[in-house]
Design brief:
Length: about 190
């Protein structure tokens, strides 16, 4: 996996990482910014992400049983979940994918769920980039409310270093594919 992981880090550095002065969603400032969608939305990038993710999911399954679905809060999770599910399907591995809307729709399909999540599914909640983990933890709560079991939070990039503890507090594993230190930066903690 080292060559694939190195290739994922290189792809992120080329397409997703920017340096300068940035104001984050939290209002804090940072000298670097990660838009991991720039990797997840490129065909070569999503293949690298899927390779790392499917390997991490296989380890998770060996420890606790099959994972049957992947998804998370729109829009950060969408390209990640759908890309991983598509690559998995091409390899004969079937994962249903879904998206959690930020708010319920009032017409057509109701509620916050869009996609193929089924009660009882064992779920990996994914995200492109996490700092504190607010979005995937919100998605995990909705997944739980829908009768599925959030088993882990997976992020392409962990820039904050605090999501692991928050996920563990809720009984979930945390699976970062790449961390801030892997990219040559310090964590941007809470």
């Amino acid at each position: 996996m080292t060559d694939d992981r190195d290739a994922l880090i290189a792809h992120l550095m080329e397409h997703s990482i920017r340096t300068g002065d940035f104001t984050l969603k939290s209002g804090r400032t940072s000298t670097w910014f990660c838009d991991a969608k720039q990797t997840a939305c490129r065909p070569d990038g999503i293949l690298l992400v899927a390779e790392a993710a499917l390997e991490a999911i296989a380890v998770l399954e060996a420890e606790g049983g099959p994972i049957t679905a992947i998804g998370g809060l729109t829009a950060g999770a969408d390209p990640v979940a759908f890309g991983i599910a598509a690559v998995a399907a091409a390899r004969g591995r079937h994962l249903r994918s879904f998206s959690i809307r930020k708010e319920s729709k009032g017409h057509g399909v109701q509620g916050r769920l869009a996609g193929a999540l089924i009660a009882g599914d064992r779920v990996v909640v994914c995200e492109d980039t996490v700092t504190r983990g607010v979005s995937p933890l919100e998605a995990a709560a909705v997944v739980r409310d829908l009768g599925a079991i959030p088993v882990a939070v997976m992020a392409i990039v962990d820039r904050g270093g605090t999501c692991a503890a928050a996920a563990a507090d809720l009984g979930m594993a945390f699976l970062p594919l790449v961390t801030a230190p892997d990219l040559g930066f310090s964590y941007e903690g809470p």
